[in-house]
Amino acid sequence: MTDTTQPEADPTTESSATPVSPPPDPAPKPSPPPAPATAPPAPAPTPQPVRLHGDPADYIRELREENKTHREKTKHVESQFASESEAHSKTKAERDQLARANAVILAAQQLGANAAALLDAKSLDTKLAAVDPSDQEAVTTFIAEAMKTNPAFSISPTLPPSSGGTHQGGTLSPPQLSLDSAVKNALSGYAPTKER
User: Dihedral of the CA atoms 45, 49, 51, 57 (nearest 10)?
Assistant: First the structure.
């Protein structure tokens, strides 16, 4: 039997014998079609002239009256808006003032301060206006500084000692009535009550 198998080829000699060709380039991508040219915008239509069914002067007069009515309405709305804005600002300021007063009243009870005296003091209005009612520490600081500046803002102010001492006098006794003093009192319209 004859051997029909062929000897294996040496890969090093075979690769050198046949040149390796680079892979073919991929197919070129088709270029996008050019954008269609934009047509120029159509010209604006020419407005048709106003066809008046009467005197043009009357039409102009009507337009002026209509314009006047619109101006007056606009002026009225603007003035109403201004007055409402002013009222809103005033209401907001009053609300803020009441919130500060409420915060001072609540904190004054705990600190032993006279809240009515604090709120009535005109000298403290500017300082009170700067206090944020939601900040408890700021309210407490305001009250403490006011009490330190003026002890009359505390509920029981400490009075300075008197220089004359205490009163050592006795009690008054009721006056003794005599017939002469009773007649004089009756004629003068004075009638003291007699103790029984």
Answer: 150
Kindly state the helix (H) or strand (E) to which residue 87 belongs, with its residue range.
Answer: helix 56-111
| Residues 155 and 109: beta-carbon distance below 8 Å | no
Q: What is the mean pLDDT of each run of 10 residues along the chain (196 residues)?
A: 54 54 65 70 74 79 92 94 93 90 86 84 84 88 87 69 59 67 74 53
* HSE value, Cβ hemisphere, 13 Å, CA-based, for 174: 8
Q: Token pair of 133, please?
A: 């009612």
Q: CA 41, 44, 45, 49: dihedral to nearest 10 degrees?
A: -170
Cβ neighbours of 147 (radius 10 Å) = 21
The vertex-29 CA angle with 28 and 32, nearest 5°, equals: 140
- 32 is written with which tokens? 């996008």
Pairwise CA distance, residues 68 & 62, whole Å? 10
Structure tokens at 183: 């007649």
Q: Is 144 exposed, middle or buried (0-12, 13-18, 19+ CB in 10 A)?
A: middle
Q: How far apart are CA 176 and CA 182, in angstroms?
A: 10
Quote the CA–CA distance of 113 and 146 in Å, as a whole number.
9
pLDDT of residue 196: 47
**Whole-angstrom distance between the N-terminal and C-terminal Cα of the chain?**
173
Model pTM score: 0.42
Closest CA to 127 of 154, 93, 104: 104
